[in-house]
Amino acid sequence: MTDTKSNIAVEPHCVHVIGLGRTGAVYVEALLRTGEIEDNLVNEGTTFSTLLIDVGDGDIQVANDYARSFKTRMASRGIPADRFNHESVVLAPGDASKRLDDVRVSLERFAKGVKSSKHQSTVFIACGLAGKTGSSMVVDVARELAKLGVGSNVLITGVGQLSHSGDGEYSNSAAQTAVLDKIDAVCKSSDNNPFSGGFLVVPTEHSWQRLTAYTSTGVKEVRQQFKQMVTNRFVADSFMRWAVSDGATHLARLTRDHGGKCNMFGIAKFSHPGVQVLPGQARSIWDAALQQWISFVPEYSGLKQTFKTDSIEVHIYAARDMRIDVMEEQLKEVLLSNYMKPNSTAYQAHKNEFFDELTSYATIIMPNVGKNDLASYD
Ligand SMILES: Nc1nc2c(ncn2[C@@H]2O[C@H](COP(=O)(O)OP(=O)(O)OP(=O)(O)O)[C@@H](O)[C@H]2O)c(=O)[nH]1
Ligand SMILES: [Mg+2]
Question: Which domains are assigned to the chain?
Answer without folding.
Answer: 11-205+219-265 (3.40.50.1440), 266-373 (3.30.1330)
